[in-house]
Specification:
The protein has about 375 residues and is of the alpha/beta class. The chain has 18 helices and eight strands. It has a four-stranded parallel beta sheet with strand order 2-3-1-4, with helices on both faces. Strands 5-8-7-6 form a four-stranded antiparallel beta sheet. The model has no long low-confidence stretch (mean pLDDT about 90).
Length: about 375
């Protein structure tokens, strides 16, 4: 037994660098400070971060948020916490969660791709009480999640087999959890963070945050707040609605003409890419929308596309699902275009047969 080895440390010996790392983590969590650690692969960073953080969380009734972007890292964190629990014979609660739609037993592929569509579906099913998974409460399922440290896949399979909503059950247990293993979005996406913290009755002051592979975080945030729309998606959406909704088909054709207008400007200036003002797309669309039979605003147009997509009856790989995907791509992009974040807005002819309109979050 090594001298001064932390009680929760589950291995017989401490690797070079781990002891110093754990001391740094301990001082950081006790002092409420920020620690940025860079260490080589194989040093045992996960256990070295979790041991002092968990110890302090249990002593102070805080919750460790272990944030990671990869399923493989979820597994490493959960396996490490299992070892700690078995070694220390300590009763603590750990919950492993991913996105709401990825945990839903009823989510078809397009719901996993477009959160906005899934969210509308989920809210509607809850409100109408049509979702049997959401309405059922199972104390045995909740107790097992509390007592065992389960990989999210096992948690979802177990809850689904008992007819219980895995996400709802996981967050119910998370109210009393010592550790929550979850995606970056659970803290770095404002809407998600606010909803989750409210559900588990926690504030930021109640958390000890571990960001795994934090060098990936800037790209993740940048990608989440950036988007692109290809002309082929606009064309596909328009063609798909040609016989079912002539008015919206016409609006989408006008959006396609805006692409053509930008392409002509780029070609005239012999540029592959040109900057686009934020107001340009909104004003060009609103000019068109005001002239239509059913006059509407830019936002109303985006919302109407969502409503159309929601009404689609889809089956995997069907033509309808392709149209639905194109319609949602347009709706999501139009919503995102008006973001207040500082973005670079560009029209690109890098693929001349399929031009792209995009916005990128600036550093």
């Amino acid at each position: 037994m090594e001298k001064d080895k932390p009680t929760l440390f589950p291995f017989s010996s401490i690797r070079a660098g781990q002891k110093e790392f754990m001391k740094d983590v301990k001082h950081s969590v006790e002092g409420g400070n920020v620690l940025i650690a860079h260490a080589p692969t194989g040093i045992g960073k996960t256990v070295a971060a979790l041991v002092p953080a968990l110890q302090y969380a249990i002593e102070t009734k805080k919750t460790v948020f272990f944030l990671t972007s990869k399923r493989s890292q979820h597994k490493i964190a959960i396996d490490t916490l299992r070892l700690i629990k078995e070694h220390a014979k300590l009763d603590f609660v750990t919950v492993d969660v991913t996105s709401k739609q990825s945990m839903c037993p009823r989510a078809v592929s397009i719901y996993r791709e477009f959160y906005s569509l899934f969210n509308e579906f989920c809210k509607s099913e809850q409100k109408s009480k049509r979702c049997r998974y959401f309405t059922k409460r199972d104390e045995e399922a909740l107790q097992r999640i509390k007592e065992e440290i389960m990989h999210v896949e096992d948690l979802c399979s177990w809850c689904a087999s008992r007819g219980v909503c895995p996400y709802k059950a996981a967050l119910e247990v998370a109210e009393s959890a010592d550790v929550l293993v979850c995606d970056y979005n659970y803290l770095f996406s404002t809407d998600v963070a606010e909803a989750v913290l409210e559900k588990i009755k926690r504030s930021l002051d109640d958390l000890i945050v571990i960001v795994d592979e934090a060098h990936n975080l800037p790209d993740r945030i940048r990608n989440n707040l950036s988007s692109e729309l290809r002309m082929s998606s606009v064309t596909g959406a328009a063609r798909g609605l040609r016989h079912t909704n002539r008015e919206v088909h016409g609006n989408l054709m006008e959006l396609e003409r805006i692409f053509t207008k930008l392409a002509m400007e780029a070609s005239k200036n012999k540029r592959v890419e040109i900057n686009v003002a934020t107001d340009f797309l909104v004003e060009e669309m609103e000019k068109v929308l005001r002239r239509r039979i059913e006059a509407m605003s830019y936002d109303e147009f985006a919302n109407s596309l969502r409503e159309i997509a929601k009404d689609f009856q889809t089956s995997g790989g069907s033509k309808d699902e392709t149209v639905q995907r194109n319609v949602l791509s347009v709706a999501d992009f139009l919503d995102g275009w008006r973001t207040r974040e500082k973005c670079l807005r560009i029209f690109s002819l890098s693929q001349t047969d399929n031009p792209t309109l995009l916005f990128k979050l600036l550093d």
